[in-house]
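2024-03-11 09:14:02 INFO worker-7 job=invfold-0412 stage=load source=structure_tokens
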């Protein structure tokens, strides 16, 4: 099976993974093993679903890399958040359903720890119809994955805890799930504005961290609440909100570096990445390779270097199952992720430069990390060479 962008779906293609219903993701809009009706494409686009898994006889081995249980765990998190957030929006006296959040984060975390999916796969939840909720679930999932790579660092950074508690990521998951809850207080006209926000609107938007903190501080542990307050602060001190002086009540400079709690530093990078790779009212979703390259170019100094290193070893610029075009004109599918050389994964050729289908892709496997003369040049028709070059340059700089 392979990932096919929804605008490239053709008659006769068979779905390999079901597509969940947005309002109840435990049920499905499209069932697996059935032909995909093309009239559903506009609906998929509207839901922010960029690609779907389609059967491909010679690539069925990818099936074993994509554990359906991961999707189930993610959808469980999504469902709990959705139900509770919607009740809260309708009725402001409804309380946070922390018990259910903790339960679903616990089962997602246990699943990720069991390691069956390994490092090669990163499967974000699709946007469904509610950005705030899918974004919250995705930031939680990405942060858990990155946090799991940072065991020793967390023990160092959270010295005031026992080693076992310091690397307990349930708190990280909970804070990430609720990190943007304060946006419920931001007027929808600002939240959904397609253009750039003016200064007044931006100031209102920025208040979501303080609003959110007030909403959660008495309901969840302090370390989780601090993620809600601090996730827009930056390593170089360029973020918000500033520190409040308790004597005068005025806002001072925002904290920087290690003064920002480590869980918030993890949430920050997961937050930026998910926003860039999701469809928003003002921008299309970016391919992972583009989002990662732009984050490295534009956000230099903004992320904790240790967290950033773990992040780039977690999130593949070319996800498994993605179809890419190589510099020799061949179309190939990505079959592995090499964290040491992320822009040069292992691929299998599926179409020749002349567009002929290759009968046995497994015989045409290329490890791009060993082939300096071939590289990935485009994904879904978009020229990705500048992003590959940017990531490669930084990878080499890190090794030097
Ligand atoms: Fe936020
Ligand atoms: Fe966010």
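2024-03-11 09:14:09 INFO worker-7 stage=emit residues=400
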């Amino acid at each position: 099976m392979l990932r096919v962008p929804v605008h490239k779906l053709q008659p006769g293609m068979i779905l390999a993974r079901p597509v969940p219903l947005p309002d109840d993701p435990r049920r499905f809009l499209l069932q697996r093993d059935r032909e995909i009706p093309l009239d559903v494409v506009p609906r998929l686009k509207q839901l922010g679903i960029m690609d779907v898994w389609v059967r491909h006889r010679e690539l069925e081995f990818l099936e074993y890399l994509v554990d359906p249980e991961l999707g189930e765990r993610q959808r469980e998190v999504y469902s709990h958040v959705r139900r509770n957030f919607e009740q809260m929006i309708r009725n402001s006296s409804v309380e946070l359903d922390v018990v259910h959040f903790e339960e679903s984060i616990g089962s997602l975390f246990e699943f990720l720890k069991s390691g069956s999916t390994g490092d090669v796969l990163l499967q974000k939840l699709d946007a469904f119809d509610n950005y705030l909720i899918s974004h919250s679930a995705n930031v939680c999932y990405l942060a858990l994955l990155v946090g799991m790579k940072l065991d020793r660092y967390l023990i160092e950074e959270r010295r005031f805890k026992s080693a076992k508690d310091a690397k307990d990521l349930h708190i990280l998951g909970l804070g990430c799930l609720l990190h943007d809850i304060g946006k419920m207080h931001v007027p929808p006209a600002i939240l959904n504005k397609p253009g750039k926000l003016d200064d007044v609107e931006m100031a209102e938007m920025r208040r979501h961290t303080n609003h959110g903190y007030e909403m959660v501080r008495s309901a969840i542990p302090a370390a989780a609440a601090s993620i809600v307050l601090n996730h827009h602060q930056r390593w170089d001190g360029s973020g918000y909100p500033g520190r409040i002086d308790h004597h005068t009540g005025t806002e001072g400079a925002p904290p920087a570096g290690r003064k920002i709690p480590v869980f918030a530093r993890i949430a920050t990078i997961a937050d930026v990445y998910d926003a860039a790779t999701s469809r928003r009212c003002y921008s299309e979703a970016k391919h992972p390779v583009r989002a990662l390259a732009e984050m490295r170019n534009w956000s230099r100094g903004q992320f904790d270097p240790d967290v950033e290193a773990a992040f780039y070893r977690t999130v593949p610029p070319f996800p498994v199952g993605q179809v890419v075009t190589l510099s020799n004109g061949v179309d190939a599918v990505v079959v592995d992720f090499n964290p040491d050389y992320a822009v040069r994964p292992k691929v299998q050729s599926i179409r020749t430069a002349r567009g002929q289908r290759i009968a046995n892709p497994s015989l045409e496997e290329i490890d791009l990390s060993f082939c300096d003369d071939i590289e990935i040049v485009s994904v879904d028709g978009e020229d990705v060479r500048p992003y590959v070059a940017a990531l490669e340059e930084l990878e080499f700089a890190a090794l030097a």
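2024-03-11 09:14:09 INFO worker-7 stage=report msg="Residues 2-55 form a domain with the Molybdopterin biosynthesis moea protein, domain 2 fold (CATH 3.90.105.10)."
2024-03-11 09:14:10 INFO worker-7 job finished
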